[in-house]
Amino acid sequence: MNKSSFPMLDPFREFTPAENYIINITNLRKYLATLGDKYPESITIYYENINSGANISVNKDLRLFPASLSKLVQAILIVNKVEKGQMSFDQKLKAAPEDLSSGSGDLYRVMSDGRSMTVEELLKELLVNSDNTAQNIFRHHLDFSDYEQFQNNTGLQELYNQNGFISSKEYTRILRVLYTSNFLEPKNSSKILAYMAQSSFHDYLSAGIPGDVKFAHKYGENKDYSIFADSGIVYIPGKPYMISVIIKGKDSSDESRAWAVGLMKEISEQAYLASK
After folding, report:
1. Is the pLDDT of residue 203 over 70?
2. Residues ≥6 apart with Cβ < 8 Å to 226
3. How far apart are the two ends of the chain, measured CA to CA in Å?
4. According to the model, what pLDDT value does residue 2 have?
5. For residue 23, what pLDDT band results from cuts at 50, 70 and 90?
6. Does 5 or 129 have the greater pLDDT score?
7. At how many degrees (to 10) do helices 132-139 and 119-128 cross?
8. Interhelix angle for 70-83 vs 186-197, to 10°?
């Protein structure tokens, strides 16, 4: 193995063009700070350039209901059970009647006749289509100790508060767990991110990113809490960045959702322009 010319530096720095580390996020910081001041109890935002570590945190202590963002942690835990030999990707699972949920995804129809699906298929539905039935099926195979182990092993003890609410900054750390593959095996971290990049949901942050740029993300929406959320990694070639936005609308009306959709798109556009 060749020795690095800069043994005290990040080993990848030697092979990454300098321009991929240079980023000016001053204007983005001002723009996001303005939003934070305008909506101190309604929006939490976190942005981080992966190469340089330059980041922006808006209303970093504001915690909101995670909605379907919690499905990403569940996916990681299920895959971890596969790695430990407690489950397998080709293992077939059935949905109990109480697991069937029409809130998000179509498995409530597909599995209503008692048919089974593999863990791999359910994992894909969970991440690509945010399927609630898949989430409910997986819940039978996880307990509190699984979540506790994950948080302790990754240093994410502050991920949830006592109410199960999250901040955008803490949630973004889950993306880093996947990107650096410091909990799962690389092939499985990559599997999860690949499914996230196939997400069928294209509102929110996706709307502000060019279609030819890969975006591995998980979105969440909950009418009871008026929550609109999106979090992911934008794979600009050589200049990837992470971004998470959680918005609490004034209600769950179509008007409130339209406002959140427009705001997410604008935030995403500004983040992309600052990063490319």
Report:
1. yes
2. 248, 249, 250, 251, 252, 256
3. 33
4. 64
5. confident
6. 129
7. 130
8. 150
Specify the pLDDT at position 237.
Answer: 94
- pLDDT tier at 211 (50, 70, 90 boundaries)? very high
The tokens describing 106, both together, are 């179509």
The average pLDDT across 132-139 equals 97
